[in-house]
Amino acid sequence: MKFEGIRLLVEDFDKAFNFYHNTLGFDIVWGKPGDAYASFEVSPNTSLSIFKAGLMDESIDQSPVGLRRAKDNSVLIFSVLDLDPIYKDLQEKKVPILKEPTPRPGWGCITLHIRDTEGNLIEFNAPLEKTSWDKDLIEDAKNYEK
């Protein structure tokens, strides 16, 4: 398992994007104003991402006043090659699953969401084959290939 980074959940995406890129000077890894997701390189091998809070609510089937904390402001992100062993292990340990493994063709991955004992949101994700990605994501990815 690899700790991928921290994703901040934001209400005003463009304002946050401009703050992290223009004010703090972080290089853009992915995304642009008007998007729903962006990633910035903070230092070598360290990234910070931002995501529209309302879309995260939708992705875990939570309303802004549902079972989540008063307001989710961040998500701990862990990347794995295969979600199945993580999912089975969490089930065996009786960890409440917030959202079972869900393919996200628009994100290029499969996600699994849980909360820690303090209610903090945690995401495990595994890559989807590029052939399963949404066409828009495939096109966007071409802009970021090095």
Structural overview:
This protein is of the alpha+beta class. It has four helices and eight strands; from the N terminus they run βαβββαβαβββα. An eight-stranded mixed β-sheet has the order 2-3-4-1-5-8-7-6. β6 and β7 form a beta hairpin. The chain is globular and about 45 Å long. The model has no long low-confidence stretch (mean pLDDT 87).
SSE layout and pairings?
Blueprint lengths: L1 E9 L2 H11 L3 E4 L6 E7 L2 E7 H7 L14 E6 L3 H10 L4 E8 L4 E7 L5 E7 L7 H8 L4
Parallel strand pairs: 1-4, 5-8
Antiparallel strand pairs: 1-5, 2-3, 3-4, 6-7, 7-8
> Which consecutive residue ranges, at least 5 long each, have pLDDT under 50?
none
Number of strands: 8
Main-sheet strand order equals 2-3-4-1-5-8-7-6
Q: What fraction strand?
A: 35-45%
How many H/I helices?
Answer: 4
What is the terminal separation in angstroms? 25 Å
Structural class: alpha+beta
Note the main sheet.
8 strands, mixed
User: Which radius of gyration do the C-alpha atoms yield?
Assistant: 15 Å
Q: Strand-and-helix sequence, N→C?
A: EHEEEHEHEEEH
Condensed summary:
The protein has 146 residues and is of the alpha+beta class.
